[in-house]
Amino acid sequence: MTAARIVETNEGIQSEVTAEIFDEFAKGMRDKGWNGVTEMISSGIHGGDILEIGPGPGYVGLELAKQINPRTFTGCEISPAMIRIAEKNAKEYGIAARYVQGNGMNMPLPDVSFDCVISNGSMHEWENPVEVFDEIYRVLRPGGRYCITDMRRDIGFLKRYMIYFSTKPKEIRPGFLSSLNASYTQEEIQKLLDSSRLRDGTVKKDFMGLSITGEKN
Ligand SMILES: C[S@@+](CC[C@H](N)C(=O)[O-])C[C@H]1O[C@@H](n2cnc3c(N)ncnc32)[C@H](O)[C@@H]1O
To answer: In this protein, which residues make up the domain named Methyltransferase type (predicted)?
Structure first.
């Protein structure tokens, strides 16, 4: 049986120090090629105006932008510390990304202004995912695509501790566990999606996580 979800607090990832440690972790994932970009592209994410929700240090969106060369790339991120790091990283990539500080539940972005919305590893931190799903619908143009990926809580004991002990730097390990405990199962996300404006989307689970993909009609 899967343990009940334990909601994450806002502490940790929002601070300057944790953002630096997360940057080191995310850079390591990027260097191993574990960024989920191939899956995003095969789900239909293409060029145009792209929005990423919760980019953190930015590597996932920047790797995507490197491959698909979008017209514009915007990140909506709640943590100013993460935005500072993402801006520095975008400069190193030579990509003109724009990061705005905001909450995915109420984004400071105009209606129908994006062709694609992506998000990786952030959904488990959203206070109310349904509000973010509705916001994704609001900012997408008709025919726009979305791809939201995150970990899932029901990966089982073995994978949980295999990943825990291989995660570097070591300081990120407690945060990994609390994120995993705050993440959703496929069934939970399906229920939330059904009560949102993204109800036509598809929820899938894979070895490590889940994805929500679809198109705004
Ligand atoms: C675990 S990190 C993942 C970062 C990045 N997407 C990645 O895959 O490496 C989650 C990020 O989502 C951000 N975040 C959490 N809740 C958010 C919200 N409601 N709106 C916007 N960003 C949020 C956090 O500040 C953090 O930078």
So the answer is: 51-148
Distance CA 119, CA 26 (A): 14
Parallel, antiparallel or unpaired: strands 140-151 and 209-215 = antiparallel
| Residue extents of the structural domains in the chain | 16-211
Beta bridge partners, 194, equal: none
pLDDT greater than 80 at residue 149: yes
59 C-alpha to ligand 1 centroid (Å): 12
The answer, yes or no, to whether residue 57 has pLDDT greater than 70, is: yes
User: Is the CB of 120 inside a 6 Å radius of any atom of ligand 1?
Assistant: yes
C-alpha of residue 52 to centroid of ligand 1, in Å? 10
Q: What is the pLDDT of residue 12?
A: 42
Contact 181/173 with Cβ under 8 angstroms?
no
Mean pLDDT, the chain, whole residue set: 95
Does the domain at 16-211 match CATH 3.40.50.800? Answer given as no
The structure tokens 């017209």 sit at 71
Cα(107) to centroid(ligand 1), Å:
14
| 182 CA to centre of own chain | 14
Instruction: Enumerate residues 6+ apart whose C-beta is below 8 A from 18.
Output: 12, 81, 175
